[in-house]
Amino acid sequence: MKRLLARGAALLMALTAGATAWTAPASAALPDSFAFVLWNGSATVATGTTPAATTVVTGPPGRYRIVFPGAAAPRGVVHTTAVNTVPHWCQANSWGPAGADEVVYVDCYKAGGAPDFTPFTAFFERSSPPIAAVPGRFGYVDSQATGALVDSFNSAGGANSVVPGPVGQWTVKFPALGTPGPTDGSLQATAVSATAARCKVFKWASNPSGQTVLVGCFDAAGAPVNTRFTLTYQYQRSLYGAAIPPKYFGYLWNRPPLGPASTNFNSTGGVNSIASAGVGLSLLKFPNLAITPDTVQVTAAGPTSDFCGLNTPWFHFPPDTVVRDVNCFTNAGAPIDTGFLISVNSQF
Question: What value does the mean pLDDT of the chain take?
Answer without folding.
Answer: 91
